[in-house]
């Protein structure tokens, strides 16, 4: 009788050990999945698009500097800079290429430092695709407004630089801060607006600065961020409604 009880107790112990092993395996599997999810989340938060844009701008400038003088307007126009007469002649692609061409190292450094600081914060908040769309859209809008003003005034000049797109990032950050009740990752709406005003004042008082591209880029960045964030929220809501209706 005692032997039988001992055997039953041993069998129960083995069953418990098997269950424990299964639980341990499940726990390890959950832990591995959690690690993978965390790694994926970190990759999503990393501003890869912003890093790539800064790298492209720097690489383009380095190549152009090897080919000639990036402070020469004629050279800049030859390699993608924007001029009203060239656009009027059908070379509309310059609205895009001019965003990646810069007048000298100082011009490049000013834009890239601001882009690296502002763009990274924005991309981690709104995502890679929306960030890229805002950057390109703002740059094109700024260059297009600059072109229209030059055509109206007749004051023609070769224009280049990422400043329209960079100001688009600041405009988008204004919307992001408004959406977050006036504060966003250490930035405030008032501070961002003051930054825009200060940059525009500097542009007005300094020769050779395309303020129209800055204003067009900032306005477009704000509106694009507003539109893209709102449409995403609407799509998420429609998806939830669709899932609820499907369950019924």
SSE pattern, N- to C-terminal? HHHHHHHHEEHH
What Rg is obtained from the alpha carbons, in whole angstroms? 28 Å
Distance between the termini: 59 Å
Number of strands: 2
Report the sheet-strand fraction.
under 5%
Q: What spatial form do the alpha-carbon principal axes imply?
A: elongated
Summarize the main sheet: 2 strands, antiparallel
Q: Mean pLDDT, as a whole number?
A: 81
The percent of residues in helical segments reads over 70%
> Would you identify the regions where 5 or more consecutive residues have pLDDT less than 50?
none
| Structure annotation, total helices | 10
Q: What is the topology, as strand order, of the major beta sheet?
A: 1-2
Structural class: mainly alpha
